What does this fold into?
Amino acid sequence: MTIDEKALERERAKYRAIQQIALAIGSTLDIDALLRLIVAKITEMMDAERSTLFVLSDDGTEIWTRVLEADEVQEIRLPLGKGVAGWVAKHGEAALIPDAYEDERFNREVDRRTGYRTRSILCVPMRDQHGEITGVIQVLNKAGGGPFTVEDEELLDTLASQATIAVENSRLYQSVLRNNEELMAAQGALHQRMRERDLLLEMQAEVIAATFLDELLERLLQRTGELVGAEAAAIVLREPESDRLFFRSALGERSEQVRRLSLGLGEGVAGWVALHGKCATVNDPANDERHSGSLAAELDFKPRNILCVPLVGQDMVLGAIELLNKVGCDGFDEDDERLLTLIGGSIAQAIELARFKEQRIQESRLAAIGQMLSGMLHDLKTPMTVISGYAQLMAQSNDGEVREQYVGHILKQFEVMGAMTREVLAFARGELNILIRKVYLHKFIEQIRQHLEHEFSGKEITLRIDLDYKGVAFFDESKFHRVFHNIARNAAQAMPKGGKFSINVKRQGEQLVFTFTDSGMGVPKELQGRLFEAFATAGKEDGTGLGLAIVKKIVEEHEGDVDYTSVGGKGTTFTISLPLKRNVATGDALAGAADR
It folds into this structure.
């Protein structure tokens, strides 16, 4: 074969080698399989005993490769510059070594450790399209015992170019896969966060709208069990100033039985969580000392796994929420714990909000009761004054029939006082505050006349009452006695030197109108606009500021209106309007017929 024929054959061999390695590397993108394929083809093409392809690490400090030994993939890493392969990777130059043991770059320790005898070495760098080093290819021991040649170096350099493309494609593919996996994971996490956010928003809306705590806890617990996936669930709360935890809500087979139980602080997993304020994930309850075996035996329920998180309020741990037996899994995980912790925060907020509302309602009711008692004590002056007056008249009269009339008037005032007491008790129980009955106005006004004459006795006040409407009306007679007396007492206080006080009763359409006019000093400027507020008073030695506030409250309870006009130094006029047509407690027909 001539020299030209030999050169042509070398080129053909190089071309065939490139084709074969291209076909080989096109069959897979898996980096481990790809390295094995490339190494096998290069070993075959280079007529060598062994070949190794090293890849430069991402940080550029070492080269690595993976080899199959005893059916296991082993990873080998070399610092940049160490050994022949490390030197080529560092300097970017080929190494053609006919006798390895004569070259100082060769690491003889590898042969001593493996028992392999390295004779000749050929190692070339791998470069990307930008000329940057990406790795090296090393072949050992030319077949036949001779050294590698310059022609072998040219061939290996060509194969290295192909290998570089294959490795870069594989790494790019792996990077895309990793990025795609990370994107999918991020997308899944985003969906989960959105789901959790929507759940928390829904829970927040329920918390704000909730009226009854137990009903709210039941709904939140049901939703939590479904979301996390648990066979049973419970909420335990620590009562204020108590070392016991009570099951306020429970779901599952034993829920009714569970609701009747309580735990000592520190007892069981829930008690431990409430005591320490820490989460607990127990996927092997039988071997966890925090688990209460006696409680499980009492309920005849054996939990496989338990997840419990504290319900943390602003100042203390309120209790705990506990889930039992994860559905479809071996146990609860960190994601379950994180989600339950978020839910627990909403539940703790709901509990504190409900307790705050309950406290405010109680405080408001107590304040209202206190105000009512103040009003009642204020209004007790009237019946006590009347009783005192009739008692004095009784002492001065020897006429048995007259004395009996006085006794009747006194007993009537005791009925008024009893009604006041019952009103406060009814309010405390949340019952109806007024009792509307049919009232014959001429009888009612006559009683008012007698009482006010006693009220104004010795005060130089002239009383005038005009009854323009003499039919029936419908209102709480006892309470309107208080209305008339409070307005009359207010008028008397405005006329310390005497004056005139008049009452007019008339009908305007379907309204019953009472008008009260005095000739007093008028409403002080500082009380203008707030005359009907509780405790609003000015310039009265014995004034409490409750009389007119009580008047307004009673009128509004009757669905009526009260207003006033006042002129300084000339007097004040109060006007009260009530509907004539009302449903009455006794079942009488609706009012409206005018008896004149």
Q: What stands out?
A: Residues 585-596 have pLDDT under 50 and may be disordered. The longest helix spans residues 150-209.
